[in-house]
Amino acid sequence: MMRYDRPVIGLAFCLSGLAGFVDALGFLSLGGFFVSFMSGNTTRFAIELAGRHAGGILLAATILGLFVLGVVGGSLAGHFAARQRKAAVLAFVTLALLVSAGLDTIGFGVAGAGVLAMAMGAENSVFQRDGEVTIGLTYMTGTLVKMGQRIAGALLGGPKLAFLRHFVLWLGLLSGAVAGAVAHGRIGLDAIWLAAGAAALFTMVALFMPERD
Q1: Spans of all domains in the chain
Q2: Comparing C-alpha atoms, which of 197, 209, 207 is closest to residue 93?
Q3: How far from chain centre, in Å, is Cα 34?
Q4: Torsion angle of alpha carbons 38, 101, 87, 16, nearest 10°?
């Protein structure tokens, strides 16, 4: 993450905010299941397995599968787009969000919320180099670990503000989640349309950003 310039970090902040927004919508709509935090869903899956709750097992497994499918789709979209990889991945994210919003509109709210996991899986392919994710946008454990390491480095005489980039990414997810919770309380899953609009805007921004990975 340290190798990226400010415009890219700005886009990462916005996309992390989008992930927080969408995850809050999914969490509130699916009764405590996440659509971007798969470590939490794996724990939830294990709990449902231990309790032999067929409905919970099916829902957790479906979300996990859709997330992985989204990663596959986003990675392929980026691969075939070559010079416009970021924009292609974000176009895939936008399409998945539109499908999710459409499903909710015609009365398939749970299915629509589940498809959010596909969008979030794809989003993690935006920043990628040599097949490896360079900035994780929907999960913050690694980001907080790196932030802690940068703080420790600063205390030992290293760069004093190196931790800020990781803090900004975490702050983006937090801010987006707050906005998502507020939006869900007011308009429910209709808020997915807002997420899709934001993703479309970020796609346009990515079109004008140099592709360096």
Answers
A1: 14-127+136-207
A2: 197
A3: 11
A4: -40
| The total number of residues written for the chain in this structure | 213
d(CA 114, CA 11): 25
CATH 2.60.120 at 14-127+136-207, yes or no: no
**Residue bearing tokens 């886009």:** 11
Q: Give me the residue label for tokens 């989640």.
A: 177
Q: What are the angstrom distances between the C-alpha of 160 and each of 3, 9, 86?
A: 16, 18, 31
**Spatial distance between the Cα atoms of 196 and 103, rounded to a whole number of angstroms:** 13
Residue range 20-44, pLDDT digits in tens: 999 999 999 998 999 998 999 999 9
Q: Considering the entire predicted model, what is its pTM?
A: 0.91
Give the Cα separation of 48 and 145 in Å (integer).
29
